[in-house]
Amino acid sequence: MGGHRGELVYYSSGSGNTARFMARLGLPALRIPVSPCEILPEPGRPYVLICPTYADGEGRGAVPKQVIRFLNDPGRRALLRGVIGAGNRNFGATFALSARVISAKCDVPVLYRFELAGDDNDLSRVRAGLEKFWGTECLTMA
Q: Over the stretch 111-123, which tens digit does the pLDDT of each residue have?
């Protein structure tokens, strides 16, 4: 994928849905570890974050604690360019809520939302969307 100019960073819990999506996506990515004892990745260039949602019925706790810890670092937060959310449509209004929360707090766009581990349609849309996004990102940074 020659046009891919940014990095991908993702979080996946024990259920592994986001990890399965990332494996099928086939693009290089840094993983935010589940355990708070492990060292957080340090992206070396602008990145898109892929994050699942873990919210209660009121939407509390949507963004995983490890993702909050990762984004609390000003250097890592400064390189964030967009967010892709994962979730379960059974949760209605809180579907992929983490992406909306991160978008609002970090002032970056929600680029896409998919359910659970995604399907082939989600994979092709994310690949194409990232190609287009990084192409326009490069133009705007010139």
A: 999 988 999 999 9
